[in-house]
């Protein structure tokens, strides 16, 4: 598995992956509007540090990060359905945990309320629920001491 900074030429493929991973959840919550989703994804792409995750030369995922002075926020993490459950997402998040620990800041993210598989993964990696919205469960990892043994 390798990660590289996304370029503008990745935008279409990354949106296609976004659709494949998140459409089911978005349809349940708001309904899927293709035009709005494309425009919103382009804004998030422009405002975050987006990395492309590849394995054996194939696009298998992406992660979008907002680095703030007092925290690292995972805006989106998406792993292609056929590559889920293979440890790719865990490796990405563990790497981000190392970065957060080195900076002594929390690593934060949100999961759709409907995405219980993601919530369980985050809990296994030591994330704890810090809040809820109508659509998301907000979670935070605050350091190795929050890790389950």
Automatic annotation (TrEMBL):
Entry superkingdom: Bacteria
PROSITE patterns found in the cross-reference section: GNAT
Single annotated GO MF: acyltransferase activity, transferring groups other than amino-acyl groups
CDD domains reported for this sequence: NAT_SF (cd04301)
Keyword terms, alphabetized: Transferase
InterPro entries: Acyl_CoA_acyltransferase, GNAT_dom, MshD_Acetyltransferase
Gene3D superfamilies in alphabetical order: 3.40.630.30
One Pfam entry name: Acetyltransf_1
Domain N-acetyltransferase residues, every copy: 1-144
Protein name: GNAT family N-acetyltransferase
């Amino acid at each position: 598995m390798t990660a590289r900074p996304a370029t503008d030429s990745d935008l279409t493929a990354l949106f296609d992956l976004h659709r494949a991973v998140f459409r089911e959840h978005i349809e349940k919550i708001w309904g899927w509007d293709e035009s709005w989703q494309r425009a919103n994804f382009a804004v998030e792409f422009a405002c975050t540090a987006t990395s492309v995750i590849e394995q054996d030369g194939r696009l298998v995922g992406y992660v979008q990060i907002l680095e703030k002075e007092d925290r690292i926020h995972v805006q989106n993490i998406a792993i292609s359905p056929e590559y889920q459950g293979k440890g790719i997402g865990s490796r990405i998040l563990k790497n981000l945990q190392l970065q957060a620990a080195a900076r002594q800041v929390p690593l934060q993210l949100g999961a759709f309320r409907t995405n219980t598989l993601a919530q369980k993964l985050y809990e296994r990696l030591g994330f704890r629920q810090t809040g809820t919205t109508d659509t998301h469960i907000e979670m935070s990892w605050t350091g190795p001491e929050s890790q389950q043994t």
